[in-house]
C-alpha cells in the first residue's frame, strides 16, 4: 500500500528496539501543576456516536471514581439518537462533565476535537460502551506520578458479556493481560496493539504533539506505534480496571480501518520505517497465512526476505519468491539481516524467542515478533 499523505512513519536510527532511548522526565510538569490554580488532575476523553443504550452506564462508572479531581469531555459525533440529550443531562447534574457537539465526522475527528477541550495535564481515554473500575483513574495517575519517564499507561481488561466470549477472544484477553511492563509493550507491539485504547492514560503534552490521524488503519494502534518507535515508554497497571464490551457495534470488530489487512498494513509501514529502516533485506521466520500476509505488505515498502525460516522439514530446500527456505539451525551462519518472526500463536512465538535467545539473538535488536 502506498503511504498516505500526512501518515508517514519517519525512519529513526535503530528506533526504540534496543530500549535504550533516553526517556523524557515529565516530573517538571507535575511540579508546575502544583504552582498553578487548582483544576482537574485528569481529563477523560470520551467520543460517542449513537450510544444511547450504553452511555449512561459508562458515565456512571466515571462518577463512581475514587479520584474526584477529573473532568470528562464528551464529544457527540453527530448522533442520530438521544446520545446528546443523555450527555447533557449528566452535564446538568455534574459540572465536571463537558459536552461538545459536532456534525458526524468520524472517530478521529471527534478525538482531536475533544482533545482540544481537555484542560488537565493527563488525558484518559474512555469509550461510550465500556465501564471503569472505580479505582482506574487513581491507580493510573499514581503510576504516572511515580514513574516520570513514562509518557502513558494502560491497564488490564475484563471483556464482557462473558457468555458470548469464544475461545479465541478469551485467548486474546489472556494475551492482553499478560502484558505488564514497558518492555512487554515494546516486544508485543507488532503482534497486535498491546494497549486497549480505552485503557490509555497519557500526558496531554505528548498526545497534543502527536494527535490522532486517519491513515486507513486503526487510529489507536497507529498512536501506540508512533509512541513506541520514537522511544517513548508506556507502562501498564497490572490490574483489570476496565470492563471492555464485546459486541457487533465495536469498531474493533466492525470498522473497515480495523480489518485484518489494514492491521497488517499498519505493522508493515512501521516495520519498514523503523526496524527495517537500514536495509531492504530481512529474514522471515514463518510462511503460513500470517507470514505470507506480512511478506506481501512489506513488499509494498521495498522490503524482501533473503531467506525464509521454517520448522517443517518437508519445506526445506524450497525457494519462495527467490528466498531459500532454511532450518532455524542455519540462522547463525546466514548473512546478518534483521529477522522478522511472523508466527501466529503465543506458544509458538515464545518457543521461537527461547531458541533465538539460546543462539545469541537479542529481541528488538536482532529480531522482532509479529503476527
Could you please describe the fold and organization of this structure?
The protein has helices at 27-34, 55-63, 83-93, 107-117, 136-146, 167-178, 182-187, 204-210, 219-229, 251-254, 260-273, 289-299, 346-358, and strands spanning 42-48, 70-77, 97-102, 122-125, 131-132, 150-160, 201-203, 233-245, 281-285, 304-309, 319-320, 323-326, 339-342, 367-370. It is of the alpha/beta class. The protein has 2 domains: 27-259, Spore Coat Polysaccharide Biosynthesis Protein SpsA, Chain A, CATH 3.90.550; 279-370, Rossmann fold, CATH 3.40.50. Strands 3-2-1-4-7-6-8-5 form an 8-stranded mixed β-sheet, with helices on both faces. A 6-stranded mixed β-sheet has the order 11-12-10-9-13-14, sandwiched between helices. Helix 3 (83-93) links the parallel strand 2 (70-77) and strand 3. Helix 11 crosses helix 12 (289-299). The chain is elongated.
User: What is the β-strand count?
Assistant: 14
Q: Tell me the CATH architecture of the largest domain.
A: Alpha-Beta Complex
Cα radius of gyration in angstroms = 22 Å
One letter per element, helices H and strands E, the order comes to HEHEHEHEEHEHHEHHEHHEHEEEEHE
Strand arrangement within the widest β-sheet reads 3-2-1-4-7-6-8-5
CATH class of the largest domain: Alpha Beta
Shape descriptor: elongated
Q: Helical residue percent?
A: 25-40%
Largest sheet: 8 strands, mixed
First-to-last CA distance:
18 Å
Amino acid at each position: 500500500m502506498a503511504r498516505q499523505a500526512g501518515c508517514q512513519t519517519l525512519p529513526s536510527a535503530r528506533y526504540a528496539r534496543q530500549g535504550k532511548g533516553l526517556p523524557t522526565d515529565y516530573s517538571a510538569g507535575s511540579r508546575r501543576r502544583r504552582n498553578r490554580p487548582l483544576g482537574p488532575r485528569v481529563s477523560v476523553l470520551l467520543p460517542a456516536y449513537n450510544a444511547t443504550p450504553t452511555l449512561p452506564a459508562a458515565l456512571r462508572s466515571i462518577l463512581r471514581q475514587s479520584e474526584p479531581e477529573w473532568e470528562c469531555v464528551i464529544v457527540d459525533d453527530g448522533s442520530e439518537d438521544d446520545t446528546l440529550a443523555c450527555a447533557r443531562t449528566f452535564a446538568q447534574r455534574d459540572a465536571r462533565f463537558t459536552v461538545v457537539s459536532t456534525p458526524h465526522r468520524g472517530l478521529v475527528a471527534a478525538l482531536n476535537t475533544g482533545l482540544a477541550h481537555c484542560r488537565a495535564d493527563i488525558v484518559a481515554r474512555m469509550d461510550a460502551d465500556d465501564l471503569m473500575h472505580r479505582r482506574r483513574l487513581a491507580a493510573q495517575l499514581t503510576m504516572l506520578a511515580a514513574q516520570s519517564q513514562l509518557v502513558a499507561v494502560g491497564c488490564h481488561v475484563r471483556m464482557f458479556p462473558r457468555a458470548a466470549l469464544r475461545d479465541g477472544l478469551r485467548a486474546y484477553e489472556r494475551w492482553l493481560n499478560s502484558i505488564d511492563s514497558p518492555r512487554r509493550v515494546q516486544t508485543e507491539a507488532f503482534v497486535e496493539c498491546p494497549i486497549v485504547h480505552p485503557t490509555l492514560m497519557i500526558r496531554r503534552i505528548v498526545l497534543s504533539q502527536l494527535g490522532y490521524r486517519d491513515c486507513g488503519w486503526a487510529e489507536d494502534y497507529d498512536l501506540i506505534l508512533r509512541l513506541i518507535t520514537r522511544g517513548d515508554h508506556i507502562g501498564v497497571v497490572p490490574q483489570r480496571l476496565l470492563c471492555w464490551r464485546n459486541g457487533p457495534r465495536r469498531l474493533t470488530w466492525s470498522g473497515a480501518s480495523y480489518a485484518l489487512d489494514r492491521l497488517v498494513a499498519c505493522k508493515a509501514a512501521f516495520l519498514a520505517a523503523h526496524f527495517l529502516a537500514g536495509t531492504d533485506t530481512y529474514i522471515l521466520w514463518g510462511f503460513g497465512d500470517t507470514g505470507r500476509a506480512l511478506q506481501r505488505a512489506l513488499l509494498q515498502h521495498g522490503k524482501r526476505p533473503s531467506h525464509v525460516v521454517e520448522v517443517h522439514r518437508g519445506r526445506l530446500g524450497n525457494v519462495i519468491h527467490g528466498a531459500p527456505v532454511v532450518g532455524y539451525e542455519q540462522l547463525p551462519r546466514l548473512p546478518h539481516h534483521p529477522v522478522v518472526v511472523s508466527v501466529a500463536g503465543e506458544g509458538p512465538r515464545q518457543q521461537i524467542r527461547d531458541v533465538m535467545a539460546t543462539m545469541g539473538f537479542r529481541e528488538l535488536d536482532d529480531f522482532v515478533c509479529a503476527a
